[in-house]
Amino acid sequence: MPDPVPSAAAFVEGPDGRSHRLPVRIYYEDTDAGGIVYHANYLRYAERARSEMLRDMGFGQAALRDQHGIAFAVRGCTIDYFAPARLDDLLWVETRVLSVGGATIEAEQRVERDGALLVRMHIRLACLGAGLRPARLPTVLRDAMQALLHPTSAIFVMTLLAS
Protein backbone atom coordinates (compact mmCIF):
# COMPACT_ATOMS: atom_id res chain seq x y z
CA MET A 1 0.00 0.00 0.00
CA PRO A 2 1.48 3.42 -0.94
CA ASP A 3 2.40 5.84 1.78
CA PRO A 4 0.05 8.85 1.96
CA VAL A 5 1.37 12.39 1.84
CA PRO A 6 1.13 13.88 5.33
CA SER A 7 -1.31 16.77 5.33
CA ALA A 8 0.84 19.50 6.79
CA ALA A 9 4.25 20.82 7.59
CA ALA A 10 5.25 21.03 11.23
CA PHE A 11 7.86 22.28 13.64
CA VAL A 12 9.77 19.51 15.42
CA GLU A 13 12.19 19.46 18.34
CA GLY A 14 15.44 17.65 17.81
CA PRO A 15 18.94 17.36 19.24
CA ASP A 16 19.99 20.39 17.18
CA GLY A 17 17.07 22.55 18.30
CA ARG A 18 13.79 23.39 16.63
CA SER A 19 13.37 22.80 12.91
CA HIS A 20 10.56 22.81 10.39
CA ARG A 21 9.65 19.82 8.22
CA LEU A 22 7.69 19.86 4.97
CA PRO A 23 6.60 16.74 3.09
CA VAL A 24 7.14 16.73 -0.68
CA ARG A 25 5.89 13.98 -2.99
CA ILE A 26 7.82 13.50 -6.24
CA TYR A 27 5.65 13.63 -9.33
CA TYR A 28 6.46 12.94 -12.97
CA GLU A 29 6.88 16.68 -13.64
CA ASP A 30 9.77 16.73 -11.14
CA THR A 31 11.80 14.08 -12.94
CA ASP A 32 13.73 13.40 -16.09
CA ALA A 33 12.85 10.57 -18.48
CA GLY A 34 14.57 8.09 -16.16
CA GLY A 35 12.41 9.03 -13.18
CA ILE A 36 15.22 10.88 -11.35
CA VAL A 37 14.57 14.30 -9.80
CA TYR A 38 16.21 17.09 -11.78
CA HIS A 39 18.91 18.71 -9.63
CA ALA A 40 17.50 22.27 -9.74
CA ASN A 41 14.14 21.11 -8.36
CA TYR A 42 15.70 20.70 -4.92
CA LEU A 43 16.05 24.50 -4.83
CA ARG A 44 12.31 24.77 -5.49
CA TYR A 45 11.55 22.37 -2.65
CA ALA A 46 13.80 24.39 -0.36
CA GLU A 47 12.02 27.62 -1.31
CA ARG A 48 8.63 26.05 -0.59
CA ALA A 49 9.87 24.79 2.76
CA ARG A 50 11.16 28.24 3.79
CA SER A 51 7.88 29.85 2.72
CA GLU A 52 5.83 27.30 4.68
CA MET A 53 8.05 27.75 7.72
CA LEU A 54 7.42 31.51 7.62
CA ARG A 55 3.68 30.90 7.14
CA ASP A 56 3.61 28.52 10.11
CA MET A 57 5.30 31.25 12.15
CA GLY A 58 2.54 33.68 11.15
CA PHE A 59 4.53 35.52 8.46
CA GLY A 60 3.19 34.75 5.00
CA GLN A 61 5.29 36.10 2.13
CA ALA A 62 2.47 38.38 0.86
CA ALA A 63 1.91 39.79 4.36
CA LEU A 64 5.63 40.48 4.79
CA ARG A 65 5.56 42.38 1.51
CA ASP A 66 2.28 44.23 2.16
CA GLN A 67 2.60 44.94 5.90
CA HIS A 68 6.36 45.28 6.34
CA GLY A 69 7.53 46.19 2.84
CA ILE A 70 10.12 43.41 2.71
CA ALA A 71 10.97 40.35 0.67
CA PHE A 72 13.80 37.86 0.72
CA ALA A 73 16.42 37.01 -1.87
CA VAL A 74 18.88 34.16 -1.79
CA ARG A 75 22.30 35.76 -1.43
CA GLY A 76 24.21 32.50 -1.43
CA CYS A 77 23.63 28.79 -1.54
CA THR A 78 25.92 25.83 -1.11
CA ILE A 79 24.37 22.53 -2.09
CA ASP A 80 25.67 18.99 -1.72
CA TYR A 81 23.96 16.07 -3.46
CA PHE A 82 24.35 12.65 -1.85
CA ALA A 83 21.71 10.45 -3.52
CA PRO A 84 18.92 10.91 -6.06
CA ALA A 85 15.21 11.11 -5.37
CA ARG A 86 12.91 9.23 -7.70
CA LEU A 87 9.38 9.30 -9.02
CA ASP A 88 6.76 8.71 -6.27
CA ASP A 89 9.23 9.17 -3.40
CA LEU A 90 7.98 10.94 -0.29
CA LEU A 91 10.66 13.41 0.78
CA TRP A 92 10.97 15.62 3.83
CA VAL A 93 12.55 19.04 3.58
CA GLU A 94 13.86 20.11 6.97
CA THR A 95 14.75 23.74 7.59
CA ARG A 96 16.84 24.85 10.55
CA VAL A 97 17.69 28.48 11.21
CA LEU A 98 21.41 28.79 11.97
CA SER A 99 21.82 32.53 12.49
CA VAL A 100 19.86 35.76 12.33
CA GLY A 101 21.52 39.10 11.61
CA GLY A 102 20.14 42.59 11.19
CA ALA A 103 19.24 41.98 7.54
CA THR A 104 20.22 38.34 6.96
CA ILE A 105 19.17 34.82 7.85
CA GLU A 106 21.29 31.69 7.45
CA ALA A 107 19.68 28.29 7.36
CA GLU A 108 20.49 24.67 6.72
CA GLN A 109 18.02 22.71 4.65
CA ARG A 110 18.11 18.95 4.33
CA VAL A 111 16.14 16.77 1.94
CA GLU A 112 15.63 13.24 3.26
CA ARG A 113 13.86 10.05 2.22
CA ASP A 114 13.11 7.48 4.90
CA GLY A 115 15.70 9.15 7.16
CA ALA A 116 18.46 9.02 4.52
CA LEU A 117 20.09 12.33 3.57
CA LEU A 118 19.75 13.07 -0.16
CA VAL A 119 20.64 16.79 -0.33
CA ARG A 120 22.04 19.35 2.10
CA MET A 121 21.93 23.10 1.47
CA HIS A 122 23.35 26.06 3.32
CA ILE A 123 21.28 29.13 2.42
CA ARG A 124 22.06 32.81 3.06
CA LEU A 125 19.03 35.07 2.71
CA ALA A 126 19.06 38.84 2.43
CA CYS A 127 16.12 40.96 3.52
CA LEU A 128 15.18 43.51 0.86
CA GLY A 129 12.98 46.59 1.10
CA ALA A 130 11.86 49.29 -1.30
CA GLY A 131 13.79 49.35 -4.56
CA LEU A 132 15.20 45.93 -3.71
CA ARG A 133 17.69 47.56 -1.37
CA PRO A 134 18.96 45.79 1.77
CA ALA A 135 16.61 46.30 4.71
CA ARG A 136 16.61 45.36 8.37
CA LEU A 137 14.44 42.46 9.43
CA PRO A 138 11.31 43.65 11.25
CA THR A 139 11.86 43.22 15.00
CA VAL A 140 8.90 40.86 15.36
CA LEU A 141 10.26 38.57 12.63
CA ARG A 142 13.85 38.74 13.91
CA ASP A 143 12.66 37.81 17.43
CA ALA A 144 10.60 34.89 16.09
CA MET A 145 13.57 33.63 14.06
CA GLN A 146 15.96 33.95 16.98
CA ALA A 147 13.58 31.86 19.09
CA LEU A 148 14.30 28.97 16.69
CA LEU A 149 18.06 29.12 17.21
CA HIS A 150 19.85 26.39 19.10
CA PRO A 151 22.61 27.60 21.44
CA THR A 152 25.25 25.79 19.37
CA SER A 153 24.05 27.14 15.99
CA ALA A 154 26.95 29.60 15.62
CA ILE A 155 29.46 26.79 16.16
CA PHE A 156 27.58 24.64 13.64
CA VAL A 157 27.68 27.40 11.00
CA MET A 158 31.45 27.74 11.35
CA THR A 159 31.88 23.96 11.10
CA LEU A 160 29.63 23.76 8.04
CA LEU A 161 31.45 26.59 6.28
CA ALA A 162 34.80 24.98 7.02
CA SER A 163 33.74 21.65 5.47
Percent of residues in helices: 25-40%
- Rg value: 16 Å
Task: State the helix count.
Answer: 4
Structural class: alpha+beta
What is the molecular shape?
A: globular
The end-to-end distance, rounded to whole angstroms, is 40 Å
Strand fraction: 35-45%
Q: What's the helix-strand series?
A: EEHHEEEEHH
Count of distinct strands: 6
Largest sheet, strands/sense/barrel: 6 strands, antiparallel
Low-pLDDT regions: none
Strands of the largest sheet, in order across it? 1-2-4-5-6-3
Average pLDDT for all residues:
90
Description:
The chain is of the alpha+beta class. 26% of the residues lie in helices and 36% in strands. It is built from four helices and six strands; from the N terminus they run ββααββββαα. It has helices at 41-56, 61-68, 139-146, 153-162; strands at 10-14, 17-25, 71-81, 90-100, 104-113, 116-128. A six-stranded antiparallel sheet has the order 1-2-4-5-6-3. A hairpin with a 3-residue loop joins β4 (90-100) and β5 (104-113). The N and C termini lie far apart (40 Å). 27% of the residues are buried. The model has no long low-confidence stretch (mean pLDDT 90).
